[in-house]
Amino acid sequence: MNLTSIPAFQDNYIWSLSNEEGQCLIVDPGEAAPVLAALEKNSWQPVAILLTHHHHDHVGGVKELLKTYPDLPVYGPEETRDKGANVLVGEGDKVAILGCEFSIYHTPGHTLGHISYFSHPYLFCGDTLFSGGCGRLFEGTPRQMYESFQKLNKLPENTLICCAHEYTLSNMKFAHAVLPQDVEIDRYYQQIKELRAKNRVTLPVTLGNERKINIFLRTQDTDLQRTLGYETSPQHEWQVFATLREKKDNF
Predict the structure, then answer these.
(1) What is the pLDDT of residue 19?
(2) Confidence band (pLDDT; 50, 70, 90) for 234?
(3) Residue 181 class from Cβ within 10 Å (0-12 exposed, 13-18 middle, 19+ buried)?
(4) pLDDT band at residue 233, thresholds of 50, 70 and 90?
(5) What is the predicted pLDDT for the residue at 182?
(6) Confidence check: pLDDT of 231 > 90
(7) What CA–CA distance (Å, rounded) separates 134 from 214?
(8) Residue 101's beta-bridge partner residues?
(9) Any idea where the domains of the chain sit in the sequence?
């Protein structure tokens, strides 16, 4: 299988997974033009669209793509029903595409109906888990997003995080400001600065790497808790997550 990121808007990535026969699936096509260009350039034939949530920068190109490929199945959560989804899926469902079996995880927080798709090693997690960070809480609560993170963190360490935005540099700038003495965070921050200076893509990344550098996955870390002002361990780890998200919102 070949994984490709298709740039869209200012910092979106539309993901494509293709096989040797030129068949592909498309994830979160916020706009149609770059997808159609990639299909033509690579002589790909789309067999499915996967949607993670209802925001326009993830679904805006669906209806135009369906004009060209009217029989294309579009998988998505209930909240994408009126955005072009014609096969509704949710927690616990499994979908077979391109010889891969995708497990569906309900990962609320960014939106209430947000879902993620996993077929080892690929995780298409939309705006839930970013490299070095997490999605904004537009509809859900910190506790919901924390629990979504815990669900995804149970996946294998070589899982490839295919999130939908190039936010890694800003996320690592925040992580470095919170834990400036952390060796792993500093190393990765410097690495990401070099990549972005060359306008290079920072994704996908492994879950194993995220466990080291993503402070939203390190809420059990006592050094982090002390840095955030907790003199003793909080009653619930999601409270640490909530504190981090609030600090990031105001960073």
Answers:
(1) 97
(2) confident
(3) exposed
(4) confident
(5) 96
(6) no
(7) 9
(8) 96
(9) 2-249
* Helices 183-197 + 168-178 axis angle, to 10: 150
Give the architecture (CATH level 2) of 2-249.
4-Layer Sandwich (3.60)
Token readout for 69 is 């490929």
How remote is the C-alpha of 120 from its chain's centroid? Answer: 15
If one counts every other C-beta atom within 10 angstroms of the C-beta of residue 194, the result is 10
**pLDDT mean across residues, the chain:** 97
Buried/exposed code over 205-230 (b: 16+ C-beta within 10 A; e: otherwise): bbbebbeebbbbbbbebeebbeebee
* SS3 per-residue string spanning 227-251: HCCCCCCCCCHHHHHHHHHHHHHCC
Chain-centre distance for alpha carbon 81? 20
Q: Where are the alpha helices (DSSP H) in 153-236?
A: 168-178, 183-197, 207-213, 222-227
- pLDDT attached to residue 44: 97
SS (H, E, C) 57-111: HHHCCHHHHHHHCCCCCEEECHHHHHHCCCEECCCCCEEEECCEEEEEEECCCCC
